[in-house]
Amino acid sequence: MQHRNGRTGALAALLCLGLAACQSLPPPSTLQLDQQQVLEQRGTDGSFDGAWETARTFERFNDLRAVTYYERAAAITPWTFHNTKAEEALGRIWISGTLQHADSPHINPAPVLRASWRRGERWSMAAANHGNPYAFFDLAKAYRERGDAQRALRWDLRAMVYQRYASSSSGLPGAVAATGDTVHPLVARIQRRAAAGDADAQVDLGALLEKGVGLPRDPALALQLYQRAGERGNVFGQYFAGLLLGRSAPGVEKDTDAAARWFARAEAQRFYMAAPSYWKKAIEPPFFIFSE
Q: How far is the C-alpha of 162 from the C-alpha of 204, rounded, in Å?
């Protein structure tokens, strides 16, 4: 009986190590060779879960092979919303140039990984354009740190619309508030680009108008701008048009059928939050409504 219990305990310890489930225990500093082989076999079994779990475990041990398996997970077919988790992780890694546990005193020192803004931006944009909301925040933060206020504002606005933030609680009005009769330079630049036909700027301007940030609130005009961008294939124009029609707002009547058509166009571009199981919840009334 004692021998059997010892084998059971050893097996449980190995499972905790491989799946990174036992967070209460200090992790070992290295993976044994046989454990690495098991992980890599699992990571190449053709499933998302196999590649994802392998990537996560390698990253937990500051092993650069994590990048390879995140890339494998991002490319798994058939494509699902899970792929965006790997895209977002790759964006985070390449923008920062570090693995998640680089500062852990319990794990081997993180290997040198030269940050690559180009790669990080590309992966984060892929995740965002596929509907991963964490990537919205990643991009806003990354652009802000690079001093790119225009693009930081873009992703702040997209997160704000997605999260249903009221303009008074978003933290944005002070950044782009009008001074007297003069709009903020960032807002004026968005207006010029939107008028010139820039679809992303049309979505930006629509978000400003929908929430009344830096401009008088005008959801009806916001809807026109979203639809204009959506007709040109902009996935956020399509998704936000669906949200606005589904949620309704002053000057915009609720039209679930029209919303469903816009969501379908966004879903066709692998924007996973535009799938019916997501958008039907997204247009439900919030539990708490705060006045603006």
A: 13
